[in-house]
Design brief:
The structure is a single chain. With 165 residues, the protein is mostly helical. It has a domain of 92 residues: Serine Threonine Protein Phosphatase 5, Tetratricopeptide repeat, CATH 1.25.40. It contains nine helices and no strands. Helix 2 packs antiparallel against helix 3, helix 7 runs antiparallel to helix 8 and helix 7 packs parallel to helix 9. It is globular, with a radius of gyration of 16 Å. The model has no long low-confidence stretch (mean pLDDT 93).
Length: 165
Amino acid sequence: MGIHEQYVMNQLEEGKWKEIKREIQQEMKKKPQASDLYCYLAVCLAKQIEESIIFEKMVLNLEMDRALHQALTLNPSSSLAHFVRGVKYRETPLMFGGNYEKSLSYLQKAQDLGFEGIMLPLELAKTYIQLKEMEKAKEQIAYAREINPTHADIKKVENMLQTGR
């Protein structure tokens, strides 16, 4: 079966980003043309960035850029790569290249390419909040609630909306 999205997310939720990162890198040696592996690597790097000091964050951010660039080079129609890049642009501090407009553009492209699930409207809502487009954020939260009314992250995004950040 190989490495797949749900497996990666489960490993990350368990705090096993180091282990899954190694697995992904090993799999990349066998399948260097598998664009999704580069997306999964980028997600692992994002987790690593959360736990790093500033200098490491800068280096890991560049690694993440390279992984996403490779994913999109291998498959320009990868909705997953566009989604991850959209989240990356929003989560990266502005002084290090973060950009809310680019975030929105990549997330919308992921949507156009067929990315599905509750995370897309939630990430779009977070980006709209950063852009101070609160009505659009509310629409995305409502759409997320239609997909899964009990998803834990809905409340978190609603709190972001309330505080405006």
